[in-house]
Amino acid sequence: MPQQIPEREGPRRGDLRPLLDGRVPMVVDDGAGALTVWVLAPDAGTWTSTALGNVLIEAIDPAGAVLTRDPSTLAYDLVALA
Questions:
Q1: 63 or 4: whose pLDDT is higher?
Q2: CA atoms 57, 16, 64, 8: torsion sign
Q3: pLDDT on residue 16
Q4: pLDDT tens, residue by residue, 36-69
Q5: pTM
Q6: Cβ neighbours of residue 27 under 8 Å, at least 6 residues apart?
Q7: Distances in whole angstroms, Cα of residue 25 to Cα of each of 30, 48, 69
Q8: Rounded to whole angstroms, how far apart are CA atoms 66 and 62?
Q9: How far apart are CA 4 and CA 10, in angstroms?
């Protein structure tokens, strides 16, 4: 009998799915709750970063943006990745 899989919010820890342009985003937590998304451009071997602060990541858009939610106000924001 199949088991029901629980719903999950946002990307899982360790998810490394490439964006449409081939870049690979990686979410890094500083240990105090502030998040930064580092993006690797595999063709150039370079990294860029976008600081998100103390937010929850709801989804990473393959077009190169992150949907975030403020934990105190529950407001959503769409942040373009550098």
A1: 63
A2: negative
A3: 74
A4: 999 998 888 899 999 999 999 998 999 999 999 9
A5: 0.75
A6: 11, 35, 36, 37, 57
A7: 16, 9, 18
A8: 9
A9: 19
